[in-house]
């Protein structure tokens, strides 16, 4: 994996974290996730 891809992947991870952390608990519940799931979702390792 080259450095440009790593930087792009990290930017996507950070953006996903930011967007999900901006949601309140009700919105997360509507999506079927909890605050504890956010990092796994952002990493792409979340398993429902």
Automatic annotation (TrEMBL):
Q: Which InterPro entries match?
A: YjiS-like
Q: Which domain of life is it from?
A: Bacteria
Domain (YjiS-like): residue spans on this chain = 4-38
Q: What is this protein called?
A: DUF1127 domain-containing protein
**Which organism does this record belong to?**
Devosia sediminis
Q: What are the top taxonomic ranks of the organism? A: Bacteria, Pseudomonadati, Pseudomonadota, Alphaproteobacteria, Hyphomicrobiales
